[in-house]
Specification:
The chain has four helices and six strands; from the N terminus they run H-H-E-E-E-E-H-E-E-H. The chain is an alpha+beta fold and 137 residues long.
């Protein structure tokens, strides 16, 4: 379940030190300092183009219980698109795609073809600029 920034502020109990919007703004500043070509997409995701691909950064809130909310920063980069989905590919994603120290491979499949991405998630509550920069780079 994803919350809007307004509902995060109204949640009782341990709540984000920064709201989703404040965290997004802070990360936007860090990204802009890395690459002034930063693009804000309509859904709030931030995009930095790099050669023939791009890195996408999204900030969201995750509900863990009735009164516990944490922020998640998702960093994703497309690897392949219009991939023919096959049983061996699905098996590889399921059995090998998670075997990275940081991040994992995802397959988003629809009607026989799919998109492969590499994703990495970080907790946003205590995320430092150096850690975030290294994860994006």
């Amino acid at each position: 379940m994803t919350l809007s920034p307004d509902s995060v502020a109204q949640t009782q109990g341990p709540v984000l030190e920064l709201g989703v919007e404040e965290l997004r703004d802070s990360l936007r500043t860090i990204l802009f300092n890395l690459d002034s070509g930063l693009e804000d997409l309509p859904d709030g995701t931030m995009r930095i183009a790099y050669n023939s691909t791009a890195v996408f950064v999204d900030v969201s809130a995750q509900v863990l219980g009735e009164s516990v909310v944490r922020s998640l920063v998702t960093i994703a980069s497309p690897v392949l698109r219009d991939v023919v989905v096959s049983p061996p590919l699905c098996e590889w994603v399921a059995t090998q795609g998670w075997r990275y120290v940081f991040g994992h491979v995802t397959l988003d499949a629809l009607m026989g073809t799919g998109r492969i991405e590499f994703q990495h998630r970080l907790l946003g509550e205590h995320l430092g600029a150096d850690e975030f920069e290294q994860a994006v780079l």
